[in-house]
């Protein structure tokens, strides 16, 4: 299992629109083979900061299966207009 951590800074004043766009865009991720779960969080101290946590069966499920699919451009079309800068995206695994 791999955890994708995507950190988004959203243009102030558009946070609610971003959250609504994410709910629509989430279905695009969920339709990807290798998708396990997704959860979007919003910072309490910095309300324009959102962190997306997506569990994938592998890094490739995200980087190839989703990012190289026809779903990814639509994903960016829905949520990209709200970005204040480029998202920071990393992958992590559980420490065992």
Short note summarizing the structure:
With 96 residues, this protein is an alpha+beta fold. The protein is built from three helices and four strands, in the order E-H-E-E-H-H-E.
Describe this structure in words.
- It holds the Pfam family ABM.
- It is an enzyme of class 1 (oxidoreductase).
- One of its GO terms (molecular function) is monooxygenase activity.
- This protein is α+β, with helices and mostly antiparallel strands and 96 residues long.
- The chain is built from 3 helices and 4 strands; from the N terminus they run E-H-E-E-H-H-E.
- The chain is 34% helix and 30% strand.
- The protein starts with a strand and ends with a strand.
- A hairpin with a 6-residue loop joins strand 2 and strand 3 (49-56).
- The longest helix has 16 residues, at 15-30.
- It has helices at 15-30, 59-66, 71-79, and strands at residues 2-9, 35-42, 49-56, 88-92.
- The mean pLDDT is 97.
- The chain has one domain: Alpha-Beta Plaits (2-Layer Sandwich), CATH 3.30.70.100.
- Helix 1 (15-30) runs antiparallel to helix 3.
- Strands 2-3-1-4 form a 4-stranded antiparallel sheet.
């Amino acid at each position: 299992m791999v955890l994708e951590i995507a950190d988004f800074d959203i243009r102030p004043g558009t946070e609610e629109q971003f959250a609504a766009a994410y709910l629509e865009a989430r279905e695009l991720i969920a339709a990807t083979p290798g998708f396990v779960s997704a959860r979007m969080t919003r910072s309490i101290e910095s309300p324009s900061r959102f962190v997306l946590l997506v569990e994938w069966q592998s890094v490739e499920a995200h980087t190839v299966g989703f990012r190289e699919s026809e779903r990814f451009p639509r994903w960016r079309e829905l949520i990209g207009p709200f970005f204040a800068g480029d998202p920071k995206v990393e992958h992590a695994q559980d420490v065992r």
